[in-house]
Write a structure and sequence with these properties.
elongated, Tetracycline Repressor, domain 2, 9 helices, mainly alpha, 180 residues
Amino acid sequence: MRDAVLRATTELLSEGGLPAATVDAVSARSGVSKATIYKHWPNRICVAIDAFDLHMAETTPVPDTGSAREDLTEQVRNVAAFYASPVGRVYAQLLAATVTDPEAAELLRRRFLAGRRELIRQIWHRGVDRGELRTDIDVEVAQDVLFGAIIFRLVSGHAPLGPSEADAMAEAALAGLLVR
């Protein structure tokens, strides 16, 4: 049931963004009753957050190349490519929707952001342990430096979010994060 709902929601998000992912549409696409959906999620935004989280986890595996520079650069590329995709662009809609929905905002922070940030912490700590990354920089700040520009570009739309832009953002961030 959960998989069917999340897959249907991901398809709808890809096809028409958050507006397309209504509980009626998810129910029709997944074959799961609306009552069952509401039994597991308080609203459609929460369903969309879970679907978004699952899709990103499946499509952006965390690299482990043996090099902090390579791992972080590849992860910035992967995240930028994800956010440039039809489902990835929905993140801006989810952020906007959570402004007026405290329950969904908490779910977004707890389930999606906390999990993604933990994966980057693992990359960071491997790099610190190998002596490649600066120990005087907090991992939380490093994550914001590495990935904040991607989210800013997604939300503002002021500049492209392609592979060359991802490489440039990673290079600029890593210039200050790597041990010289």
